Amino acid sequence: MFDKQLMSIPGVKKLIAKLSCLATIQSLVIILEAYFLSVAVVNTWSLKKITALLLPMLYFFIAFVVRYSITRIESQITDRFATKATGEIKTQLLTKEFELGPRMISQIGSGHLITLALEGTDKIENYFNLIILKTVNMAIIPVILLIAIFLINFISGITLFLVFPIIIIFMIILGLAAQAKSARQYKGFTDMSNNFIDTMRGLKTLKLFGLSDKYADNLYRVSENYRKSTMSVLKVALLSTFALDFFTTISIAIVAVFLGVALIDGKILLLPALTILVLAPDYFLPVRDYGDDYHATLDGKNALTNIFEILKIKSPTSKIKLSDFTGWNNTSELKISDLNFSYDKTSQALQNINFNVKGYKKIGIVGRSGSGKSTFLNMLGGWLEPSNADQLPFDVNGKKVDSLSQIEWQKHISYIPQDPYIFAGTIAENIAFYQPNATKQQIKVVAEKAGLMDFVNDLQAGLDTKIGESGRGISGGQAQRIALARTLLDDNREILLLDEPTAHLDIETEYELKQTMLPIFRNHLVIFATHRLHWMQNMDYILVMDEGKLVEQGTPVELINRNGIYKELIDEIRGANQNA
Ligand SMILES: Nc1ncnc2c1ncn2[C@@H]1O[C@H](COP(=O)(O)OP(=O)(O)OP(=O)(O)O)[C@@H](O)[C@H]1O
């Protein structure tokens, strides 16, 4: 029943050792508490002097305080562990997402990933908080109490001992049923978040084609599935709580009957009988506690399993490390020689790419749809490995490497896609997504640079305005500005990769955004893939791609004068504009 994946979390063994010591002390304190309470009751029953009552009551009170202090210490230690471990898992997940890159993220589902990183980690924290402590208590406290009960009265010990496995078997059966239902519920949740995000993203298009009603039905169906699976998990949870309560109450009643009969027959004295009766509910308490919270933690367990599955996906790697690379500056140089890449055996997405760049240059990538622009950007971001890695196609500052899939390179990269992801939260939280420890002042400075403050100043709650799902809607241009602010928050990201960041924007918004972006480009190496060719006037150098090949490269003027494919692309766009 104990989740084995928990054991792989750093620090968990130490936590279990600490909690086991505390649970042992707690068990002894529970025994003392029951004993002194019974002594006080027996003394009262025997009409002894009030002084004979005071001392046992004082000891009982001390035991009571120690017991609840231990409970407090236990939850503090567990809480600290849960916060730390969840923070580490979240960092690992974000690092993994960056290593895997945009291509894998869209395969896994960005909605699913964001839900995991935000809500999933909250659920995991709750899971860590409850399950480890409760499992340790369940494994230790009943055993020690049972030994004490056996020593006091053998028959009571046997009765309680026999009931325990029955409860555990019931818990396992109901737990397995709940787990299967909870896995279905979690899948429903994932489907719902991915569906919701995809529908929201495509809402404009769906409206244009009159398909929004059909998709509304689709969303309704997915949400209904989620509701139904949640209800069936709740049913099992209620059934299991009922079963636990029923069995434990019956067992305590049986023990009480045995003790009563033994008392009448004079086979046991009142003090031991009462001590056992007081101990019996505490004997069952850890297992009831575990059972009560088990269902509440199942979604945390599912989220953890999901995150571990993602963490297990192999990231692209490099054999030769750029250990001396400390960031891109005005003298840095990247040389690419005969770079090849294919997604599958049938076609080559990149073929013999040769290209050099030095310093803070602005490089435009143009080409028809499917020509390989995004693939090339993914390669530069280190999210793909070259097919000919053994030929060391990259040379960074004079060091030849097999691939750019390495942290030393990637931590200097910012990537802005067509649709930056905006999640439900404040504007400030959205900006600080990759830098959760950023101060309000830092966020404000980057928001200013990204041109967000005009919009933010008009909002009553300013940067604390909620956006995304169930918050205020924002425009495509504002979403891009938030993405820009995100990249600016980390000074070390001097390489900007942009994949058609303005593709969805109207011309006016694109123009305004351009005025903000161009100054930001100054101290960066910028690689900008786009179909909007007016950006090329602001680029230092242009790469023209066609069917995976780099067919032309040069300055904008050189390419215009060459009368080649670049000129053809410009003429096509002019023609299209005139015909429109
Ligand atoms: N994940 C993938 N698996 C298989 N083939 C892929 C994958 N992604 C892209 N391709 C193929 O690789 C080629 C280059 O695609 P890429 O997305 O790089 O082009 P692009 O120039 O960015 O296109 P667009 O301008 O439409 O975004 C295309 O033939 C495409 O079908």
UniProtKB/TrEMBL annotation:
Residues 21-299 form the ABC transmembrane type-1 domain. It comes from the Bacteria. It is a multi-pass membrane protein. GO terms for cellular component: plasma membrane. It is found in: Cell membrane. Pfam families: ABC_membrane (PF00664), ABC_tran (PF00005). SMART domains: AAA. GO terms for biological process: cysteine transport. The keyword Transmembrane applies. GO terms for molecular function: ABC-type transporter activity; ATP binding; ATP hydrolysis activity; ATPase-coupled lipid transmembrane transporter activity. Coiled coil: none annotated. InterPro entries: AAA+_ATPase, ABC1_TM_dom, ABC1_TM_sf, ABC_transporter-like_ATP-bd, ABC_transporter-like_CS, ABC_transptr_CydD, P-loop_NTPase, Type_1_exporter. Gene3D superfamilies: ABC transporter type 1, transmembrane domain, P-loop containing nucleotide triphosphate hydrolases. The chain crosses the membrane at residues 21-44, 50-70, 131-152, 158-178, 236-262, 268-285. NCBIfam families: CydD. This is ATP-binding/permease protein cydC. The gene is cydC.
